[in-house]
Structures are given as C-alpha cells and as structure tokens.
Amino acid sequence: xEEEGRQIVVVMVGAPGSGKSTFCEAVASSGNRPWxxxxxxxxxxxxxxxxxxxxxxxxxxLKEGKSIFIDRCNLEREQRKEFVKIGVxxxxxxxxxxxxxxxxxxxxxxxxxxxxxxxxxxxxxxVVNRMLQKKELPKLGEGFSRITYCCKEPEVKDALAxxxxxxxxxxxxxxxxxxxxxxxxxxxxIMKFLKKVDAQDGSSHKPxxxxxxxEKNAFPTTSAYHEEKTTEGDVMVRSADSDTPILAxxxxxxxxxxxxxxxxxxxxxxxxxxxxxxxxxAKLCLVDLTSGSKILSLVAAKASKKxxxxxxxxxxxxxxxxxxxxxxxxxxxxxNAANWxxxxxxxxxxxxxxxxxxxxxxxxxxxxxxxxxxxxxxVVPLQSTSPLSSREGVTHVIxxxxxxxxxxxxxxxxxDYNEGCRILRQAYTALFEGFLSILSTTKPSTRDGExxxxxxxxxxxxxxxxxQRNKRDGEFAAASSxxxxxxxVDAEYGGTNSKPRDNSETRQKVNxxxxxxxxxxxxxTAMHPERHPDVVMEVLDNVVVIKDLYPKAEKHILVLxxxxxxxxxxxxxxxxxxxxxxxxxxxxKWAEKSLLEDSSLVFxxxxxxxxxxxxxxxxxxxxxxxSPHLKNKKHWNSFNTAxxxxxxDVIEEVAKNGKTVASCINWTAPQRKLKMxxxxxxxxxxxxxxxxxxxxxxxxxxxSNILLNYHLDEAEGVFMFSxxxxxGFDQLLHDEHLPDDQDADSFHFPSRL
DNA sequence: GTTCTAGAAC
DNA sequence: GTTCTAGAAC
Length: 753
Hints:
Blueprint: E1 7-13, H1 20-28, E2 35-39, H2 51-63, E3 67-71, H3 77-85, E4 91-98, H4 106-111, H5 121-133, E5 146-150, H6 153-164, E6 175-177, H7 188-193, H8 212-217, E7 221-222, H9 233-243, E8 246-250, H10 261-275, E9 283-288, H11 294-305, E10 313-317, H12 323-327, E11 333-337, H13 348-357, H14 359-368, E12 377-381, H15 387-392, E13 396-400, H16 417-442, H17 455-464, H18 466-491, H19 505-510, H20 521-527, E14 536-539, E15 543-547, E16 556-561, H21 577-597, E17 603-608, E18 617-622, H22 633-640, E19 644-646, H23 647-657, H24 668-675, E20 679-683, H25 696-703, E21 707-712, E22 718-723, H26 741-744
Helix pairs in contact: 1-6, 10-11, 10-16, 16-17, 21-23
This protein binds a DNA duplex through helix 17.
C-alpha cells in the first residue's frame, strides 16, 4: 500500500449525449474525494469556453489537491494530448470511454434539447455524425495510466461505482479495463460511391493482396478488383463493376469433400475453357478466402498456360459474401458449394452464403427444390431485400453439388476418381450453364449473350424477383391505379385534416394524387401488411416497419404510419403528435437493435420534405451511405440536406405550431435542395500534406469551377466541401489536393452558395 | 421510388 | 467521347 492516494485527472471520452456529465456529477457528488468537473461547455461563466481555459482551470484545481474530470468529447487523440500532459508525478491521468451503442444514435442525443453544448436538432445530428466518424479510442501509449472502456450500460455503472467509491487514500490499478471496440469507420460508403474504394483507411477487413503466383504467370489473382489494372483503374472499375455480369464461384468439392486439388484444378480450367467464349461480356471468377490458397495458384497457372483470356476468367482472394463491400468486386451471381439437402450449415461457403443472404434464400431455394444430386446446379434469384443483394449487388445464388471424396460424409465415392471427375465436370458445366441462363433471361430480346448490360439491376428486378414483382405489380395496378382513374375525378381528395383509419377499398384508390402505381406501394403495405411478408418486419396497431427496397445505407428501414389520409408531412397536424412519437420510438427501437449487431453505425431518423411515395414514412437510416443503391446527387441530397427533416425536429415543430413548415411552403423549395451541389465531408491524412504550396491544386479546382465552396472544420483533419457536379470531386480525393489545417486559417474562399 | 433514353453540356 | 440532366415510362 502506498503512503496516500494520488490525484487523478479523468479524461472523459464520448459523443454528445453519451452520459459524460451524468457520470462526472454522480461521482463528484459522492464526496469520497474532492472532485471537480471541468466542462468546456460551461466554463466561461456558464457559456462555452476554450480548451486553454479548461487546462488553466485544471492546473489550478490540481494545486488545490482536487481530482478532476475533463468533461468534453475528447474523441480524438489530438484533442486529448494536452490534458494528458497535465499529468505530473503524483497525478494519474485516466481515460473513461463511454462508447455505448445507444449513444451512437444521433436522434437520441439531439432529443435532449437542454443540453449544455447547445446542440440542436438536425445540426446536432451532423455534428455528432462528424465527431463519431473521427473517433479514435484512447490508448495507453498516449500517456494514460488507466483506461476504462464502457460499451454497455452495466459497464458504465461499474466504472461509476469504481470512481465513486475511490477514497482519498486509495489508488486504482493501472492498465486497460473493459472491452475496446473498433474505431469508427471513415465514410467508406462515400468513397465507394465515388468509386474510390482504395481511399478507405487501412480497413482490417480488406483481404491481403495476393501477387506471387499471379505475377509469375501473368494471370490476375486479385483481392481488390480495382487493383487489377493500375493505370486506368478508375475507368476499369466503373465499367466493370456495375455493368459486367460476373459469376464468382468457389472451388467445388476440394474443401469439405476432399477432392484432389490437382485434378480439380484441371477440371476447372477445362470447363472454364469450354464456356469462356460463350460468355459475351460476362466474366467468371474463382474465389477463395485465403491468400495462400493452393487451388487459386494452381488454377491461375493452368489457365494462363492454356491461354484462357484473363479478362474473362480470373481468380480472386476474398470472402465470397463480401466481394463488393470488402474487395470492390461486384459479382451479380455467386455460386454456393451446397449440400444435398440444400440447407444452411456445415461451415464453409454454404454456411456463409445462407447466413449472409438471410432466411429468404432458404425459402426461395426450397420453393424450387428440396434436394440436389451431385453434379447438378440450381439457380435461385435473391430478393432485392437480402443483404447479399443490397450490400453486395448479388442477384442470384447458384447452388452446386460436387462429388464427395470424404469418407466422413455420406455417399462417398471411395476414391473412385473416374466417377468423381465425371461428376465434378458435370457440376461445373451445370454451374456455368446456370449462369448463362441468367444472362439470357436478363434481356429476352437478345439470346446470344452479347449484350447483357445493366445486369446489376436488371436481373435483380426483372428476373430475380420476377414472380414477386409481377404479383405485386398486378396487385397494385389492380388495386389502385387502374380503377382509380375512373374515380379520380369525382373523388376530390383535398388533403384536408385527418381522416379516420382508411381501410375501405374505394378511399385507397382515390388517393393517388395522379401518381403511378409504384407510388402506392407504401400505402398498400401500410394498409395490408399481411400481403407483403417479404418486406414487413413488424406490424403494430398504428405503424408498420418494413425494409427499404432500395436501401441507401447498410441499414435503412421505413416506419410507415397506418393511418389513412396521411401521405406526407404536409398532412401532419397536432392530432398526429402521438403517432409521430410512436413512429419515432419504433424507429429508435430498430436502430438500437442494429446497433447491437454493429455498434459503429450511426443513425438518423427523419422524413423527406416531399416524398415520392404516398403514406407518411419515417426513414431510419445509418449514416455510412454504403450501398449500391446510392447512385446520384438526388439520393445523396435527400438524406444530407434540409430536405431530410429529423424526426425530433418534426415532433417539436408540430408540438409548437400544430403543423410542419412542409405543409405551408411552396413544395418546390424543398425539392430544389435535391438539386443543390452535394456537400461532402472528408477526413484526410495530415501527414500526406507537405508544404504551403499544397493549396495550389485546390485553388486550381476552384478556378476551374469544380469546387464551389469548402471549409475546414474546427477539428483538424476534416474537410467539408460542395461541388458543382457530383462526380467532379474524384479529383479531390487525392490527398495532395487537400490542405493542411495550418494553412487553412489564412485561406478562405468566398461562398458562392 | 427505379430505369431508360435523348440531348445538352462539358 | 464522356457525363449530366430532364423527362417519360413503369
């Protein structure tokens, strides 16, 4: 035991709303030690002050023998640096990290209107979002003697108790406590959107680059598709990843079924050789998870020797269920090394694909077949709501069953490689034929496989969901648009105040506002959720939760109001307040559910000012915007300008004014926002910038009218800008175009917006 | 909401 | 030649 307890400086780390102040106050009020809470938001006579004031105040308190809480966000290492320096011999510097999933939910933090930091509504959402994207969790190496990570509520309680109970003569053990989570992601989705997948910051998910054998054989084995061709990589990805149908397939039977790898590689190359000229613009890609994969190098070598066109067939190191999201390779079709029962499980590719595709794949598979014989393949279209579809762009899974050489598994061939090879050939043939059949059904007008462009969406919607879609279209067409035309004239739907729950067939048909049947889809789902089991996630009395059919981010769901006559915010009045609150809390519940799976997500809940589809719906959307469906300026702006109205703001507004602004302003005003230059936020690596001349390229961009407006955020390393055109900013993503923050103060462009 | 197309703009 | 936009169709 030491002679007496040392003073402590506790640097709190957490986003606004994470509970830092509550934590500090609870400990300080215990009185077990003389604590003082230093809060930058209030240090200046109750108003926000500076970091310097905090430090001065901390030093003074230390002299008085007090222990200190530094109550500010401190999310970045740079921001913490000076507080760590306060530590002198006899003073410990600790960090307490409040990293709770629920706190990452922006709408919760902005709900607290009385917060000292004066964060407000949608602006707060942007600030919190920005902060979290820059989050760097503290490490002992920064100079902390103790770090406590709290990812869950009980952990916060424990940490609180630890500090509260700490008497003046006690010390806490040094080291890291609690579980540390990954640092926040950069805006990967934006990078991908701008086709700069490699701009991500060293993601641990990214597979290693496999080069050894491919270089030798001049045959491409890649892990990130854009790296295949270096000089004109951008162009390659652009045309290849969205327009070219690619079948990604694992090596069949060589893993679990223990088929001889040398023989298997011969067969792969042989059958690929037979099909490679029938592919048109499509491509085949052999995928394996491990970079040291023997099968990949064997196949690559043999394919090269056989002069198989390497632009038509290549190998790829990566996870077959994350080819696009982690490797930048978009494959619209993937093959599954299935089991004969066509069921999930068994580990390996089969388990991974069923798990990644979601339960619908099993249903869709078993609708078509209950089992599969060795040497056969089964094409199964994926629902566009499947994560494999929305995240990876996969439209079809082809199940294949190869021969079994593993005595541990049923129906083993007992080393009969004559039969084994025959079945394996048959399996690959069936697989590639299945792929060709998908290609040929994509565009019924073309049979020769020459022009299968636009498959990214074409297959998914036109073929993949053919049945569903026809069913649904028919339904909508019959239920609303066709009949409604007859009724429209005399219906006189005036969009007046609330109407009773509208379940009558006639009313629904009337309320079309002249839009096509597609615009009725949400309304139909809200009124008859039981007819749409493929998208409906939850049905309550007043709201229905559904998946967004074209998610614009990793997580994107809609909470629909079930009340009739409520098409958009324009129809919302005071009597709908309770409904708005229920929609909000339901959305929050689902956001929190997602946060349990991936706590690095950040959510916003809000409404579009002028929605395209009828029926009031709340978007619950994660802020990564990582989705193949986010394609243009309108998509971006609809979630990143004032066109998107935060749910909390809407509720507040309706409570105050009895209606929303949207209900009284000219509807073109919000729509104009969709056409605004998109505003982006970028992190950049400070080390990549050199010298004062680094601004010149920016000035050039400005002069050439590409750059409209930009500024550096108060925190270092963040750059906000807007562009005249959506794609013009590719150029900016190169580090050398971004300014060093030291130069930024003296550098201001006039705003043109 | 999405896709496709033509024509304008670069 | 490519990119962007608006409009039509669904």
